[in-house]
Amino acid sequence: MAATSRFPLLSWTTIAPVFGVLLLALAWGRDLAPVLVALVAVVLAVTVLAAVHHAEVVALRVGEPFGSLVLAVAVTIIEVALIVTLMVSGGPEASSLARDTVFAAVMITTNGIVGIALLLGALKHGTTLFNAEGSGGALATVITLATLTLVLPTFTTTTPGPEFSGPQLAFAALASLALYAMFVFTQTVRHRDFFLPVTEDGVIETEEHAEAPSGKAALASLGLLLVALVAVVGLAKIESPAIEAGVRAAGFPQSFVGVVIALLVLLPETIAAARAALRDRIQTSLNLGYGSAIASIGLTIPTIALATVWLDGPLLLGLGPMQMVLLLLTVLVSVLTVVPGRATRLQGGVHLVLLAAFLFLAVNP
């Protein structure tokens, strides 16, 4: 994305957040006709794209790896908002929504975003290069977070079923926050160079190819990003009954609602990673993929744990056998991909096949 110092007041990225807030004010608390529900869905999708665009502008201003962090946090805020709003209105059927969404986010980021980036990068530039130290550390954090929050609940015995007891959930939430904080400190302060793009000679690149926006444009984008996030949270609440009804009408399992949420919020992130890969910035793509997975677990689980104070019903976090097999296979393949510090189109294709398997089995379990 080529940013300029001027800020276009009449661009769609400026209009969408403002229109989203206005539509939210008009539609809140009303019974909407099908045409208006469709309009809300379109505005919601466009506002999500606008939110991530403004996050990209801010990201270009602050540079890597801070830019990837801004994008990941912005997307995770949207994800958490969608999960909470659907859990509030979903009743008992929504008890596994957090698990389904977080697991879908992990599979989409580690297989979808990473796979698309590696494939596009290899097709255009040949062998893709990245920093194995930074990517390996990020992947290790993803694996630990996923195991602590999504695998262990299936095997704990204090509470029957795939759920934590109160103290166990509190520990998992605090552990997730601690791991996320350590990763952010490592990525942005202590070992920032581990997360910067590298050249064929192993030289770390410190400058982005795109022109950084002015401070005024970055501040304007930050303000519009906040407006867009408010609009997305509210419009998601309005649209939540339609999302669940659409999944039921298609004959898909209720757990597919989590996949829809993850696909919606991670689509712009995927586009950003693909753009970076085409510019031969594979490290930036991996930062986006693994960073989004870490933020998705590290911020979502503590927020949902806190929300259980006023949410009724159980919180089912443990994965089933089929999901654990897919997670284990993803972990093994990801380790083999990251360790060499370089990858070809083959690795990208393998990750995309794993994503396809996840999506197929989500519809036909």
From TrEMBL:
<feature type="transmembrane region" description="Helical">
    <location>
        <begin position="346"/>
        <end position="363"/>
    </location>
</feature>
<feature type="transmembrane region" description="Helical">
    <location>
        <begin position="317"/>
        <end position="339"/>
    </location>
</feature>
<feature type="transmembrane region" description="Helical">
    <location>
        <begin position="217"/>
        <end position="236"/>
    </location>
</feature>
<feature type="domain" description="Sodium/calcium exchanger membrane region">
    <location>
        <begin position="34"/>
        <end position="188"/>
    </location>
</feature>
<feature type="transmembrane region" description="Helical">
    <location>
        <begin position="35"/>
        <end position="54"/>
    </location>
</feature>
<feature type="domain" description="Sodium/calcium exchanger membrane region">
    <location>
        <begin position="221"/>
        <end position="362"/>
    </location>
</feature>
<feature type="transmembrane region" description="Helical">
    <location>
        <begin position="290"/>
        <end position="311"/>
    </location>
</feature>
<dbReference type="InterPro" id="IPR052946">
    <property type="entry name" value="Alkaline_pH_Ca-Antiporter"/>
</dbReference>
<feature type="transmembrane region" description="Helical">
    <location>
        <begin position="102"/>
        <end position="123"/>
    </location>
</feature>
<feature type="transmembrane region" description="Helical">
    <location>
        <begin position="135"/>
        <end position="156"/>
    </location>
</feature>
<feature type="transmembrane region" description="Helical">
    <location>
        <begin position="66"/>
        <end position="90"/>
    </location>
</feature>
<feature type="transmembrane region" description="Helical">
    <location>
        <begin position="7"/>
        <end position="29"/>
    </location>
</feature>
<protein>
    <submittedName>
        <fullName>Ionic transporter y4hA</fullName>
    </submittedName>
</protein>
<feature type="transmembrane region" description="Helical">
    <location>
        <begin position="168"/>
        <end position="186"/>
    </location>
</feature>
<keyword id="KW-1133">Transmembrane helix</keyword>
<keyword id="KW-0472">Membrane</keyword>
<dbReference type="Pfam" id="PF01699">
    <property type="entry name" value="Na_Ca_ex"/>
</dbReference>
<keyword id="KW-0812">Transmembrane</keyword>
<feature type="transmembrane region" description="Helical">
    <location>
        <begin position="256"/>
        <end position="278"/>
    </location>
</feature>
<dbReference type="InterPro" id="IPR004837">
    <property type="entry name" value="NaCa_Exmemb"/>
</dbReference>
